[in-house]
Amino acid sequence: MEFAPAREIALTTLARIDSPDEPLALFPDDEIVDVGWAWVFGYTTARWLATGDPDAVPPPGGGPIVVVKDTAEAWMLLGSRSYDGQLKQYAEQHGHVHTVRYG
């Protein structure tokens, strides 16, 4: 899967947890990580991206959005566990080779 359709999937996933009080936004394209078998999309509040205001950082808990290239499956990493460990576990369970470290 190319980057543009993966980004649209990530936006759709992000919309499910978005808040009108503090809208969320994906990180800029140059900060999205290609781990080989998936794209990993970080996100934060739109206000933080625009201003860097520490009061605009979203609460802890949710991690980046993963979009698997060969299936278009999207899921969110858990903020409470190693991101790379979660990616490695998913890759092993689904027949992918995880060689690019993340986080």
From TrEMBL:
Domain Immunity protein: 6-80
Domain of life according to the entry: Bacteria
Protein name (database record): Immunity protein 35 of polymorphic toxin system
Source organism: Actinocrispum wychmicini
Taxon lineage: Bacteria, Bacillati, Actinomycetota, Actinomycetes, Pseudonocardiales
